[in-house]
Amino acid sequence: LLGKTVAAKVAVDKPEAVPAGPRPEVVRIENDGFDLYGLMALPEDFDEARRYPVIVTLYGGPGTPYVRDRWADRDASDIWAWKNGVITIVVDPRSSGENGRRGMDQAFRQMTVIELQDYIAWAKWLGSLPYVDASHIGVQGFSFGGTTTSMLVLRYPEYFCCGVAGGGVYDWMLYDTHYTERFMDTPEYNQEGYARATVLNYVEQCKDSHGYLKLTHGTGDDNVHFQNTLLLVDALQKAGIQFDLMIYPDGMHGYRGAQRSHDKASDHIFWSRHLLGK
């Protein structure tokens, strides 16, 4: 081959088309001197002249951020919401970690208390957007997020009209000391803090004004015991508060397989009724 030129055929791959779907973007607000971050996705064929309902996804536990600046996120890419004209946003409170020790210390001895004010700030910000229907903001969360969701829907229906609370702790006296006492101190030394952070203590006072709540729990949950939801169900019934309930037999702390598929489909029915009015 000396003295000859050999033409090499180089195959150039065409870039793959980006699949259609939600495109979450990081947003930021300020509340009480803290920077709060969210990850928001607008629905398909978004029209600024319309007003859209919103699903807020949250957790709220100290040092556990849900908002991450990356291409795909665990909670922000909701295809069902995107196709059905619902804005989705994942939000964090001051104690999630982005504000360091200063933010996390705010939750010490009063979990699910100060964080609620940050979620209300998020709801107010969303309601200020011209394309958001402030009367149709729903909220969802699992585990600590279920605790937070139930607090918001029961106590602040003027901001959160409905919500789905899964596997939540509704009385911190029922959760393990490894986690609870690290952030709440012991019940003996923080009786007031435990009382303020217990969802069950607010049910009776919320019976005349509350949002619509859906509860889910797995009976085999060895993290947050099923007893939590049973006690909340009992309290809601005694207060005359109507709600939805979905139980997963032997389900663990996080549903899998057929239970996971059923849970998602059930949630879509809930949002269709309470956010879309179908």
Structure description:
This protein is α/β, with parallel strands linked by helices. Helices cover 29% and strands 19% of the residues. The chain contains eight helices and eight strands; from the N terminus they run βββαβααβαβααβαβα. It is globular and about 55 Å long. It has an eight-stranded mixed β-sheet, with helices on both faces. The longest helix has 18 residues, at 257-274.
Notable features of this structure?
about 280 residues, globular, about 20% strand, alpha/beta
Write the layout of secondary structure elements.
Elements: E1 25-31, E2 34-41, E3 52-57, H1 79-83, E4 87-91, H2 100-104, H3 114-128, E5 132-142, H4 144-155, E6 162-166, H5 177-184, H6 191-196, E7 212-218, H7 227-238, E8 244-248, H8 257-274
Parallel strand pairs: 3-4, 3-5, 5-6, 6-7, 7-8
Antiparallel strand pairs: 1-2, 2-4
Radius of gyration using CA atoms only? 22 Å
End-to-end separation: 74 Å
Beta-strand residue fraction: 15-25%
Number of strands: 8
Structural class call reads alpha/beta
Give me the number of helical elements.
8
Main sheet: strand order? 1-2-4-3-5-6-7-8
Largest sheet geometry: 8 strands, mixed
Globular, elongated, flat, extended or rod-shaped: what is the shape?
globular
Poorly predicted spans: 1-12
SSE pattern: EEEHEHHEHEHHEHEH
Q: What portion of residues is helical?
A: 25-40%
Give the integer mean of the pLDDT values: 91
